[in-house]
Amino acid sequence: MKIGLFDTIDPVPELKNPHVIVTIPPWLNAGESARLAVEYLEKLTDAQPLAKLSSPGEFFDFTRYRPTVSLVDGGSRLDIPNATARFGKTDSNDFILLRAPEPHTRSESYIESILEFFKHFKVKRYCLLGSMYEMLPHTRPPFVTGSASSQWLQNSIEVAGVVPSNYEGPTSIMSLVAQEAKKLGIETLSLVVHLPIYLPLPVDHRGEVPLLEICESLYGIPVPVVDVEKAKEENDQVNSMAEAFLKEHPQLRFMLTQLENNYDARIKNREQVRLSPEIEKFLQDMSRGFEAS
């Protein structure tokens, strides 16, 4: 069956007011934290393939999103980048887990087709999961910012520890999905975890765990103990690296204190605090130091 520009499995499953959990690779996927979170949700809900774009080349530039080759059963398999949806269930909710890369062309048609897909399944809620780097101290835990389409939902995520988002500036065309979904009466929600920019890890469970903790508050979904332990190990690793660097450059400890004060004020006041040029220089020095090590 075809829904908009999506080819679906046959027969199409019946879903009851599903909640869509969305990631937008490669945007908002710092440290692969958003990917880790949605992969866990796919596993937990026993998610099965539901749909994919019939002609992804109409929207994606394959010199920017590269196809990949895998060796399978003695042969090779070519995987072409695509927008894909899977469906899964828990005792309390039906879910659609959608991976929707940013389009390089025909953005309006792409977004219209996603919305048509939502309408077909009578989606109740759209929830974006993301991760990003920011000027944060490594000595403080990553935090999640978010916004919701209703005051009730906003209160629910803030009770779970989410800091209200007041971001203004450049964004992705995919932000239009939430804007248009709200017009259709769909609840909308965004959850973005923030990680230190100067201590990046290629795969960062420190960002995955806070996202899943919010999902636990919203849906009763348990946070995997093994990933919590991985996050602790990564945090210890990062702290060890940072301390070694700061011993070589003790003059930077004052800058780290400023960064910590900025973080504490932001969490307490629930608003963005402007960083000084000294803090930005501190981060640049830290980044160069770790790149050289």
UniProtKB/TrEMBL annotation:
UniProt name for this protein: PAC2 family protein
Lineage of the organism: Bacteria, Bacillati, Chloroflexota, Dehalococcoidia, Dehalococcoidales
Any Pfam family hit: PAC2
Top-level division of the source organism's lineage: Bacteria
